[in-house]
Amino acid sequence: MKKIKLWKRIAGWLLVFLLVLQLPVNAFAGEWVDNTPYSSEENFTDEQDISEESDSSGDQTDVEEASDSEDQIDIEEEIPTEDSFDVREETDTSADLDTEKSFASEFTSEDEFTDGSTALFSDGTDQSEEGTAKEEIQVTVSISKDGKFLNDKDGNPMAGRTVTLTGQSSYTMDDALKAAHDLYYPGGAEAGYDFHEDETGNYDGLIYKLWGYDRNSVPGIRYARNNDCKNYQESLTQSVVDGDSLNFYIEQRKKQDRLAFFTETEETITQDEHAELHLRQSNVNGTAFSECSGASIYIDGVKQDGLITDESGKVTLPSLEVRDTPYFITAEKLVETSDGSMATAISAAYINIRVVSAAGQTGDYINCVT
């Protein structure tokens, strides 16, 4: 029994000893397997190299991390956050609101606008400088065909009809003629008028439709502004001003109808006076004017026997009765054509004569044209 216990103790101590010596034994065993001599110095050097590489790798990692950190800082500094934008925008908006309120407070008084002073925009710009000042003007428009005035939608002649233009700072002949159609033609300008650019994009003054007549169905359409017809092919985009007289006429014979007009369009006389009329005409090119002789006179659409303009283009009317409405006087001059038919030589011309009693207003001339 004692021997068995002794051997157990010896075996236990051997086991402890072997456990203590296990690592060196394994190392020696590895060297013995590949027949490589073992050197403790070489092993120490390798471990030192590995340690240095590990340290170097750690340093490099630290550098890269530092570099990444700096880049991230730069990016964050260069790109403002959304919050910073919101703050600035809110600040600017509040400043603008304060500015607008300050301007509004300066112009809330009605006196600022009703005393004739010029109103300013919120940015301090004068309206007149921007060309936005609206102007109202009145012009007269006459439209005729074959030497006779055409009637409006109510059956009244289109002779010196007043057209008021509003809502713009300036106006053209096109504006006036379009407004005249809207006022007096059945269906308005959409039905009876057309003026547009040609296929090349130019406005050459051609009226494609006047008072419902297509240009292709008539010999020609001409017009004059203040009895000036030498530039009849000028575009209708030319400007008109307050008081202008616009005359549009459809020719019966192409480039043969001459513009005609009385030197007065409105006249007032007393009952015992005799009005003397003066009729003039242009040449076929509209570049010069002469006296219009041989023209017959109509009163309210009725031809007057023996009333014909003389060589000086003048004629004296008989005595006219007093009445509330003016007398509508027109002229007609016919010539024989090569085929023996009669055709007009001039465009339609008119004058309105008002007759008052001798105790009333004495005669005077209005809208005199020389």
TrEMBL record:
Region forming the signal peptide: 1-29
Region annotation Disordered: where it falls in the sequence: 39-133
Domain of life of the native organism: Bacteria
Keywords: Signal
Keyword Signal: yes
Extent of Acidic residues compositional bias: 43-84
Record-given protein name: Bacterial repeat domain-containing protein
Organism (species): Blautia obeum
